[in-house]
Every structure is written in C-alpha cells, then in structure tokens.
Amino acid sequence: LTVRELLMKMKELLLFLSCVLCVSADVLHEDIGITGCSDSDGEVMYGLDGEELAYADFNKQEEIYPQPPFVDHFTYGEGTYEQAVADQQICKGNLQTARKVMKEYPLEHVAPSGVMIYTRDEVEFGEKNTLICHVTGFYPAPVNVSWTKNEQKVTEGSSINVPYPNKDGTFTQISRLDFTPQLGDIYSCAVQHLALTQPLTKIYEVEASARSDPGVGPSVFCGVGLTLGLLGVAAGTFFLIKGNECS
C-alpha cells in the first residue's frame, strides 16, 4: 500500500470506530427547549427527562420554576427571560414566513387520547388538597381546561402548565385545582380542543373512606362478618335437617 492509501484506510477505520462509539453510547439524560408563538401568545419552555424545569411567563414578565418544594431548586443564569423575549420576536418573524410558504397546507387536528382526574394526596375531609386533570395525546397545543364544583364554575385556585411535547409529536398538559374535600362534593374538569366537537368531561366525587371516617371500616367488616356467620348457621341447619330426613 502507498502512504496515501494507508492514510485513507486509517481514516475509514477511525470513522467506523467513531460511529460504533456513537451508536453504543447510553443516553443518561434528555433535555429539551421549546419556543412557540402565535399572533397573541407565546411559549418558551425548558425541560429535562420528561419534567418541566422552567418557562417564561410573558404576563408576569419573569421566568417561572414550577418544581415542587421537596426537590433541589434549579435556576438558569441571568438573562434567561430576556432571551426568551428575544426568541419570541424571531419566532413571530418565522411564523409570518411559514404562513406564506404553507398557505394552502391543512393543519392536522388530533383529539386528546387520555383525560384523567385524581388527587395529589390521599383524601382527608377538611384537609387542603389538589385535584389534577391530566390531558395527553392532543395536537396542536394547547387545550382549555375549566373546573366546576357542584355544577358551579370555579376559577380561584386553578392553574395549568404550558404544553409538554410527547415523543409521538402530540402534547400533554396538566391543570390543577386547590380544594378542601367535603363529603358529597362533586368536581369536574372539562377539556376543550380544536379536534373536539364538545368538551371531554371527567368527574371526581368526594366519597367516604375508611381513613376519613374511622367508623366506616369497622362497621363494614362487622356487617360482613355477621352476614357470613348467619349464612354458616343457615347452611349447618339445612344439612342437619337433610341428614335427619335420610336417616
């Protein structure tokens, strides 16, 4: 082999080894940054491993960090919000260009594939809690979520996060409602989306539980035990009578 041919072979080998290393490397973490805009709204969000780390609130004019208080607090460097504002200007310029290019392209609408309502903590009567309405599998973003208590609309204590992208290209959003459970109260979250002809509604009813009413559990078990005992006595009497008839 000539020196030139030898060098070419070595380059090919190094390229092959580099590809092997790239393919075999394990992914430890996945981070994501999203910039979106419309004529009247905008979104800049940062996430890590499927969790929302921060987003720009253009109404409050600040960067919001929605992590719960029990995790280590994480913040980005100074100027993060200002950069988000600048990115919005670029996004809106690109939006106008895209509209001209894709003027006749129809927008696909995908209705939410899943809506769930549940409490953050175990329910105890009179103790503050949070209702969560989890909406996923929709496109495009966002959805609108409204809450009711006993068929009356509720806005105080409600919030909704910015849309989070799923791996299949759809989105997930979570709405929360602060509430104090009282027996018999009925809550609902109604989800509206471009692909829906009518809202998707999920119901949550505050019901009695063994923890919220200590007398319920023992009463139920005593009732079941008494019933089984009576059944046992009846069955024994039946077989005793039959035995006497045969003899």
From TrEMBL:
Database matches in Gene3D superfamilies: Class II Histocompatibility Antigen, M Beta Chain, Chain B, domain 1, Immunoglobulins
UniProt-listed SMART domains: IGc1 (SM00407), MHC_II_alpha (SM00920)
Main localisation: membrane
Entry's Gene Ontology BP terms: antigen processing and presentation; immune response
Transmembrane segments: 216-241
Domain Ig-like: 112-201
Signal peptide positions (record): 1-25
Compartments where found: Membrane
Keywords on record: Disulfide bond, Glycoprotein, Membrane, Signal, Transmembrane, Transmembrane helix
Pfam families reported for this sequence: C1-set, MHC_II_alpha
Topology in the lipid bilayer: Single-pass type I membrane protein
GO cellular component term, pick one: MHC class II protein complex
Keyword Transmembrane helix: yes
Family: Belongs to the MHC class II family.
Protein name: HLA class II histocompatibility antigen, DR alpha chain-like
